[in-house]
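Re: that backbone. Tokens:
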């Protein structure tokens, strides 16, 4: 009886393992880009978009389960999202609730950032609370900004935009920003946390909104969108 070639057996075994790994990786990739939290657990769901997401079919967004949309509006002291006004008008027409997002820059003065936001976002009683995205650290600021100053200026910014909108803001808080500045403990506002697939717990207290899938393939857009749910 001929002996089996050990090298050939190892090659076949390696090929089989590699094939299984590729199949598993492909499934995980597909699942990540199509997964949404169950509606039974989270009745209120929506999306966050900006000009970078391109044209949004808001009718399709509404028809496929979006109840609301947060729209990137402004960033730092001068930047503005060029699609904000168009997205706001079309999302409202599709009967979605909308809210505005400002990307906060700890290197820029609070009053200049608030003026930028106020210029872009009109006061509207029907709008959702404004959201402030907190992700950029002050490490690379041209002028040194202490951690205490970051929190102080952020509080000033929040007070100014809340006076304009008439609503408490929500903190869209990244894990990195929270780990550095401990905002969740120092500033009493509702939290919007991030974490693909798994509920985030890095703030040390309950969240109000969760970006459950940051790259969801959705009928409303040509590319992936950020899918967000509300704590019931």
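Recovered sequence:
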């Amino acid at each position: 009886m001929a002996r089996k070639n050990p090298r050939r057996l190892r090659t076949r075994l390696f090929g089989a393992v590699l094939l299984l790994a590729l199949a598993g990786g492909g499934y995980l990739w597909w699942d990540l880009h199509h997964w949404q939290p169950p509606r039974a657990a989270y009745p209120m769901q929506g999306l966050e978009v900006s000009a970078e997401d391109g044209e949004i079919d808001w009718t399709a967004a509404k028809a496929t389960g979006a109840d609301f949309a947060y729209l990137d509006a402004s960033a730092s002291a001068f930047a503005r999202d060029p699609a904000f006004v168009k997205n706001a008008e079309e999302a409202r027409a599709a009967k979605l609730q909308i809210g505005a997002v400002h990307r906060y820059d700890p290197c820029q003065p609070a009053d200049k950032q608030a003026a930028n936001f106020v210029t872009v976002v009109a006061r509207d009683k029907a709008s959702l609370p404004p959201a402030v995205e907190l992700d950029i650290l002050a490490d690379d600021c041209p002028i040194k900004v202490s951690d205490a100053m970051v929190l102080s200026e952020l509080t000033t910014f929040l007070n100014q935009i809340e006076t304009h909108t008439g609503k408490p803001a929500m903190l869209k808080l990244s894990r990195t920003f929270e780990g550095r500045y401990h905002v969740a403990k120092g500033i009493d506002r509702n939290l919007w946390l991030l974490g693909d697939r798994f509920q985030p717990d890095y703030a040390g207290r309950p969240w109000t909104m969760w970006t459950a899938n940051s790259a969801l393939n959705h009928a409303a857009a040509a590319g992936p969108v950020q899918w967000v749910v509300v704590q019931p």
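Residues 18-27 have pLDDT under 50 and may be disordered. The domain at 35-230 is CATH 3.20.20.80 (TIM Barrel).
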